[in-house]
Amino acid sequence: MEVHPPYGFSNNASDVGWIWYNGDNFTVDFLTAEAVDTFRVWSVYAGGERGATWEILSSDNGTTFTHETNFTYDTSVGGGVNDDNSTRSDYAGWYSVSFNVVGNAHRYWQVLDAGALVNHSPRSAEVQFFSQTATVPEPSSFALLSLGGIGLAIGASRRRTRASA
Length: 165
What we know:
The protein is mainly beta. Helices cover 0% and strands 41% of the residues. The chain has no helices and eight strands. It has strands at 25-34, 36-43, 51-59, 66-74, 93-98, 106-118, 124-131, 143-147. The strands form two sheets. It has a five-stranded antiparallel sheet, with no helix packed on it. β3 (51-59) and β4 form a beta hairpin. It starts with 24 loop residues before the first strand and ends in an 18-residue tail after the last strand.
């Protein structure tokens, strides 16, 4: 069975996915400290602009979280990319943020909707985390700690190259 993290929706441009509202979040336990440096999410709504600020936080104990960065998840025509990094001609696709250039590793990573910028948070499907060391575990080797909204599972992807998207 293929898992499409975090709520079971596969990537599409047909507006089939999940929407977060202010305060919704999920926390991932990677079971070991990981130097996450990139986060990306797939927007499924191809028909117009949506936007929110998502905060990315880290923790070593799963209780006390530290702000790492703000991700301006604001969809635009040509702003999203396909799996092969080609630019899309609509509002759908992968949107990403890179951060943590010093490579601080933490066991727990949390993504939090800090508020809408345009209408509401973009309707989304899969999310992915990338690590500088290419050691982010496969989905079966880490645990979803908590969800601020509805949810099923969360996954991660390994970075194949260090090249910019």
